[in-house]
Amino acid sequence: xxxxxxxxxxxxxxxxxxxxxxxxxxxxxxxxxxxxxxxxxxxxxxxxxxxxxxxxxxxxxxxxxxxxxxxxxxxxxxxxxxxxxxxxxxxxxxxxxxxxxxxxxxxxxxxxxxxxxxxxxxxxxxxxxxxxxxxxxxxxxxxxxxxxxxxxxxxxxxxxxxxxxxxxxxxxxxxxxxxxxxxxxxxxxxxxxxxxxxxxxxxxxxxxxxxxxxxxxxxxxxxxxxxxxxxxxxxxxxxxxxxxxxxxxxxxxxxxxxxxxxxxxxxxxxxxxxxxxxxxxxxxxxxxxxxxxxxxxxxxxxxxxxxxxxxxxxxxxxxxxxxxxxxxxxxxxxxxxxxxxxxxxxxxxxxxxxxxxxxxxxxxxxxxxxxxxxxxxxxxxxxxxxxxxxxxxxxxxxxxxxxxxxxxxxxxxxxxxxxxxxxx
Length: 424
Fold this sequence. Notes:
Its cofactor is FMN; [4Fe-4S] cluster. By secondary structure, the chain is of the alpha/beta class.
């Protein structure tokens, strides 16, 4: 995509961009100054007109979420950044925090001002030691320059920001589990409703957005919601960071407009499939929880929320995992099942017990100990997990299994019948 349309990675390769001095040379905090001259409602309307959808996976409209914060409620309002990037294959937010932390801070100040919040938190994944240090240094610089704290730039606006390190639990990427963890409680999801907009952090109205979502806000304020809405495709506007990994020649994070053909993303940005496009076996398009696509689908599918949902998968967090024909699908899914069993918080019986059963049966099939009926048993276990848990971790564990059986049932059957993989 053209340099002029870059929203998130525009300055990420500039040496020293993580420092305030260099970031300001590139225009950092100018958008914030503009925003502080607007009303909160005007900012929310701009974000709504941009069509910005949450980049954490759910794709809920960000401006609409902000508008849910009650305006006349006397309770404190909180803004929380979800920086607990833990989905296998996902590594884009990490780059934003590491190389352009002031972009995130600026986005948070704007969002906080829009919803009348005076306190923000960045909840960062426990393993992200370096990124946490970079963020903490950037926050300190912003305080020293009166870009955070009391009476920001003499505009009469207060906003404090703290970096909170999590303990490394995948489930804390779920917003209500994150809030519990932030409060010092066990990181387990809450029943909803009530939703965080009314009862969030410390029982107060709270907005939760992920890193990529908040980093898109400054450009929207600079160039306008109408400009942003013209990027991408209808209902999936703007740019998106895709983390492309697996069997490609140039794995990495790429910023492109939403709606780009998957084939173009892989060939033109990630250097193509190892061994050529004909060597493609399947693609997990949005992170480990999203169902796999087969090559026939990958030929024409667009990377938008709607197109991927129509193909029986999801855009998710935009983590594209490419698998060539040397891949044993059963082994790949078995590894994911182990991950979800390990990360289940155990609060809901269908998830706690179901992820254990999935991991156990997948391991049995993968190691050549599969039994007749195991494949249908897997589908039965999945049906007893999906939609029956407080949060989406149970669904996340079940969907890749269901998707793999849908497209690669013959490989599962071969494993059960011959006790080994057909691609060995």
